[in-house]
Structure formats: C-alpha cells, structure tokens
Amino acid sequence: MKPFKRTVEKVLAWIANILLLFVAIFLCILKYTGFTDKVLNSTEFYNSFRNELSNNGVRYTDAEMKTVIDLLVTVVDTYAILAIIATIVAIVASLTMKKRIMSGILFIIVALFVFIASFGAAILIYLPYFIVAIMLFVRKDPNQNNTDDSNGNQAWIANILLLFVAIFLCILKYTGFTDKVLNSTEFYNSFRNELS
User: Fold this and answer.
1) What is each CA distance from 114 to 104, 156, 157, 176, in whole angstroms?
2) pLDDT (tens digit, 0 to 9) for every residue of the chain, 196 residues total?
3) pTM more than 0.85
C-alpha cells in the first residue's frame, strides 16, 4: 500500500503560517521599536484623529482623546503578543499533523482567532487554516486501523484550551488592557447608561 501523504494540507498550512509570521513580525516591529508610541502620541496624529472624529460628529475632551490613543497603543501591543502566540500554535499544528484531530482543532482555534482579531480582513490567513482543519477531520489515513484516533487527544484538547485561557488572562493582566478599558471614561459612561 502506498504511504498516505498530506501534501495539500501541509502546503496550505505553511503558506498561511508564513503570512501569519509576516504579520507577527510586522506587529512586533511596531511594538518593540516604539514606532506605535511615536506615531500615535505625535501631535500630527492627535490633530488629524481629532479632526476625523469631529467630522463624524464625535466630540472628545483632551483626557478622553488621551485615553483613546492609549487604548490604541495597548491594542497594537496586545495584537503583537497574540500574533506571536497564534504563530507558535499554527506551527505546532503544522508539525503534528499525524495526530489529525488535535492538529485540526489547533488549526480551527488559530483560524477563529485570526478571523476575530482581523475582523475578517485576513482571509488569506484564516481560510487556509479552516480548509486544512476540515481536510484533517475528513481525510483519514487508509493504512490506519479502524480504531478511534481521538483516544489520546482528549487530554491534549483540555490542556490546550486551558493554556489558551491562561495566556489570554495573562495578556489582559500584563498589558494593562483591562485597567485601561475599565478605568476609561467611555466605559464608565456606557456602563452607567446601561444600568439606568
């Protein structure tokens, strides 16, 4: 019997991995060179951003504008960290395709993350991951016994989900994202309006 190959899955996965790696590198350059801080905290950006908001009928005080700009810096910093984590998970999923169920679940998680984080714009990254995940779930190795190959994967799945939750909570804590959002005037006003 011929050996079973997953060439299509591997090619699609590595194309998406390379694109995601470029995004992660770009975001890391923005974060670690201080470019985001310099641009977003410059007076030119501040004035053009304020004018753009006022053209759309949104008026902010100086303190509120500072909070919005700080929030934008935090979002870029958080996205850089999350892109690195997503890249690592995608590479692990690509290297563990022999455990097709576990690898497929990892690809689905990365695809959903990229879809949500990019608001659907990064279709060249998340669509190949979805396709690879579906192919991993559907195409079984004909040489493999008819045993259920998910026996050892349940513990992996639980551990991976717990790891993602822990990473997400750490990112929220150490980037100060929750502090900035919860202490912002916009959050306070919207929360107060919801309660009344």
Assistant:
1) 15, 22, 19, 22
2) 566 688 888 899 999 999 999 999 998 888 888 887 788 778 888 888 888 888 888 787 878 888 888 888 888 888 888 888 899 999 998 988 888 888 889 999 999 888 888 887 888 888 899 999 888 888 877 766 545 455 555 566 656 666 766 776 666 666 666 666 667 777 677 767 777 6
3) no
